[in-house]
Amino acid sequence: MDGLAHQLIAGIATGGIYASVALALVVIYQATHHINFAQGAMATFSTYIAYMLIQAEVPYWAAFFATVALSFIIGVLIERILLRPMHNAPVLTHVGIFIGLLLAISDLCGWLFDYTVKSFPTPFDAGGPMLGGLISGHELGSTAVTLSMLILIYLFFRHTSLGLATRAAAYNPVSSRLVGIRVGWMLAVGWGLAAAIGAVAGMMIAPVVFLEPNMMLGILLYAFAGALLGGIDNPGGAVLGGFAVGIIENLGGAYLVGTELKLTLALIIIIGVLLIRPNGLFGRVLVSRV
Amino acid sequence: MSASKGLPVAAARGAEQVAGHSWAPLVILVLLLLALAPAFLVEGYRLFQLTLAVIYALAILGLNIVTGYNGQISLGHGAFYAVGAYTAAILMAHFEVPYWATLPVAALVCAALGYGIGFPALRLGSLYLALTTFSLAVAVPQILKYKAFEDWTGGVQGLFIFKPDPPFGLPLSNDQWMYIFTVLVAATLFILSWNLLRSRIGRALLAIRDQPVAAEAMGMNLAQLKTRTFAVSAMITGIAGALSAIAVEFVSPDSFSVILSITLFVGMVVGGVASILGTVFGGLFVVFVPNLAEDISKAAPGVIYGIILIAFLFLLPTGFAGFLRRLVVPLLRRRRSAQAMSSNGR
Fold first, then answer.
1. Residue in chain B lying closest to A257 (CA)
2. By C-alpha distance, which of B197, B116, B239 is closest to A267?
3. Which of A99, A108, A269 to mutate to test the interface with B (most CBs of B within 10 A)?
4. Measured between alpha carbons, how far is B150 from B156 in angstroms, rounded to an integer?
5. A128 vs B: CB within 8 A
6. Which of A133, A255, B48, B136 has its CA 20 to 30 A from that of A82?
7. Using one digit for the tens of pLDDT, what is the confidence trace for B72-89?
C-alpha cells in the first residue's frame, strides 16, 4: 500500500511537469490552432541557459528567474521573426517551421553545451524522504513550484487586462482588433508565456531525468497525451489531463508495462483518447459552420 | 496548398498527358535506362549511397502521397520504414525467406499498421494525425528494443542479414544487383503511384486537401479515403524500409529514431510537396546533404538541416521541383506561343 501511495505522489510530481508543458501547448494552440512540436526543444534550451548561469555561480533562484525572463523573450522573438510572416500560410508550413526549430534548437544545445548527460542541481532539500518516506524534497518542491506557476498563469488570464486581451485575441481576433487590441502582439505574448512555462518545467524535471539535448522529447509526448486527454482547447482540462497522465504513467510503469515501454504508454493513451473521446474529457465538441 | 494554385497546374498536366500519351512508354524506358546507368558507372560506396538515395526517394514518395497530395501531415513515416525493415530482416534471418519475397509481406504489414494508426487519427483534423504519428515515431525505437520481442528483433543488438547474390548467374557484383533491384522496384511503384495520382482517386485526394467541405458535399467519404490513402502511403514507405534493410544488411533500433521521420519530412519539403519528381530530389538531398552539412559543422548538422528546412519554407515553398517548374514552364509556354504566332502569321 505504501508502494501505491508513493507511486501516486510521484505521479503527481511528474504530472505537474506534464501539466505545465501541456498548458504551454494549449496556450499556443488556442491562439493559433497549431501544435508547437518544438515546445520540448525550446524548454531544453532554456534549461541549458539556467545550467550555464548556475555554472557561472549565479545563485539558483536568480538564475531561475533570469532564465524564465530570457525564455519569454526568446519565445516572443520566435513568434515575431519566424511565425508572424507566415501566419496565413498552410498548416504544413507551420508544422515544417516547428520541425525545423525542433531540429535546429536540439542540435544547437548539443553544439553549445556538448552532448554529454549533465546533472542539474535542485534548490530543494536533497536530504532523505519526507512525510514518512512518501515523497522526496525535490518532488515536493517541484510540485509546489509548478502548482504556484499554474495558479499565477490562471490569475494572469482571469484577472489582468493583458490576460483578458490575450484571451480575446485568441477567441475572436477580428473583433479584438476592432476594439483596439494589438492581436499580433498578443500572439507573441502567448508564445513568450509558453516558452516561460516550458522553461520552468524544464528546470524542474532536469534534476530527475538529467540534462541532455533530447531531455524533453518523452515529456513532450506525455504533454501531448495530457493535452488531448483534457481537451486540447481547454487550458484547465489540459492541466488536469497532465496530472492524470503523470499518475497513469507512474502506476502503469510500476504495475503494468515497466519503464521500458513508457513512451509506448503515451502513444497508447493518445490513440485511446482519439478512439474513445476525441475531444478530450473537458474539451468542446467542435462543430464547424459550412 | 491553395486551390487557386493547384487547379491550373492540374489542368496543364492533364493537357500534357493527352498530348504526350503515346510517348509515355518510350519516356519511361529512357528514364529507366538513365536510372540504371549508374550501376555500371559508379562503384563501391558511391553506388551504395545512390541505392540509399533511391530507397529514400521511395520512402518520401509514400509520405508525399498522404502529406503532399492529400494534405494529411505525417511526422512518423520513419515508423513504417522501420517496420518494413524489421519485417524483411526477421523473415530473412529467422525464416530464410528469399529477399524478394519479403517485400510483399512488408507491404502488407505496413499497410495494415497504417490503416490501424490512420483510423483513429484521420476522422479528426489533420493536426491529430501529425501528433499521433510524431508520438509513434518517438516510441518506435523503444518498442523495437523491448525484451519480450528480443528473440525476434535481436533487441538492442539488432539483426544481421546478407546482401543477395544476383540471380540467373548474371555477371554483376552484389552491389550492382542491389542497385538494379532497388531501381526496378522503385520504378514500378513510381509508375503505379503516378497512375493512381492521375486517376479519379488522385483528383479526389487533391479535392480533399484543398476543399474538404466541397469534396464531402460531392459524396466523398473523407475519413475512408484518407485512411486508405494513409495505408497505401505506409505501404510504399514500408517497402522502402524493407529494401533498406536488405541494402544495409543490418537493422537496429537506434537507426529508426524520430530523426528518421523528420529526415523524410525534410526531404519531402525540400524536394517538392505534391510532386513525384520532387521525391527523387528529396531522396538525393537526404543522402548527400547531411555529408555536406557535416562538412560545414561537425557538431551540429541538425542546425544546418533545420535552417535549410525553414529557409525552403520561406523562400521556395514548392521545393526543388517547384523551382524547376518555375524555370521550365515559362520557357515551354514561350515556345508554344511563339509557334502559335508563327502559324497564325502564315
1. B146
2. B116
3. A99
4. 8
5. no
6. B136
7. 889 989 999 999 999 999
Asked if B73's CB is within 8 angstroms of A221's CB, the reply is no
Q: Name the residue with cell 538513365.
A: B34
Chain mean position to CA B75: 13
Contacts of B271 in chain A (CB under 8 A): none
Report residue B303 as a C-alpha cell.
Answer: 542546425
What whole-number distance in Å separates Cα of residue B84 and Cα of residue B240?
Answer: 7
Question: Dihedral sign, CA of A262, A267, A269, A272?
Answer: negative
Structural domains of chain A, ranges and CATH numbers in brackets: 2-276 (1.10.3470)
Nearest neighbour of A35 by CB, restricted to B117, B131, B265: B131
pLDDT, position B344: 62
Helices (H), chain B: 3-19, 24-36, 38-41, 44-64, 77-95, 99-122, 126-145, 150-153, 174-198, 200-210, 212-217, 222-248, 258-271, 276-296, 301-315, 319-345
Q: Spell out the domain ranges in chain B.
A: 3-345
Strand, helix or coil at A118?
strand
Q: In this complex, is the C-beta atom of A101 within 8 Å of any C-beta atom belonging to chain B?
A: yes
Residue A211 forms beta bridges with which residues? A118
- Tell whether the model's pLDDT for residue A56 goes beyond 80: yes
Task: Kindly state the percentage of chain B with pLDDT values over 90.
Answer: 24
Residues of A in contact with B78 (CB under 8 A): none
First to last CA, chain B: 42
**Nearest CB neighbour to A267, from listed B136, B266, B303:** B136
Q: Which residues contact B53 (CB under 8 A, 6 or more apart)?
A: B283, B284, B286, B287, B288
At residue A25, the 3 state secondary structure works out as helix
**Of residues A93, A111, A290, nearest to B313 (C-beta):** A93
Q: Is the Cβ pair A95, B258 closer than 8 Å?
A: no
Separation of CA A49 from chain center: 17
Q: What is the C-alpha to C-alpha distance for residues B127 and A94, in angstroms, rounded to an integer? A: 11
Exposed, middle or buried: residue B102 (CB in 10 Å: 0-12, 13-18, 19+)? buried
Cross-chain CB nearest to A104 (options B67, B307, B314): B307
Grid cell, residue A272, equals 485511446
Q: Which three cell numbers stand for residue B106?
A: 512488408
- Classified as helix, coil or strand, B251 is strand
* Tens-place pLDDT, residues A153-190: 889 888 899 989 988 888 888 898 899 888 888 889 99
Q: Residue B304: closest CA among chain A residues belongs to which residue?
A: A104
Question: Do the Cβ atoms of A92 and B303 come within 8 Å?
Answer: no
H-helix or E-strand spanning residue A39:
helix A39-55
Look at the pTM and tell me if it is higher than 0.80. yes
Return the C-alpha cell found at A73: 523573450
Report the pLDDT value the prediction gives residue B58, as an integer from 0 to 100. 94
Q: Residues 59 to 88 of B: which have CB under 8 A from any A CB?
A: 67, 71, 73, 75
User: Class of the B3-345 domain?
Assistant: mainly alpha
Record the cell numbers describing residue B81, joined without a space: 520504414
Tell me the angle at which helices B258-271 and A91-113 cross, rounded to the nearest 10 degrees.
Answer: 130
Query: Which one of B73, B120, B135 has the shortest CB-CB distance to A92?
Result: B73
| CB distance A269 to A248 below 8 Å | yes
Residue A115 DSSP SS3: coil
Are the Cβ atoms of A107 and B306 closer than 8 angstroms? yes
Asked if B207 has any chain A CB less than 8 Å from its own CB, the reply is no
Predicted-complex ipTM score: 0.87
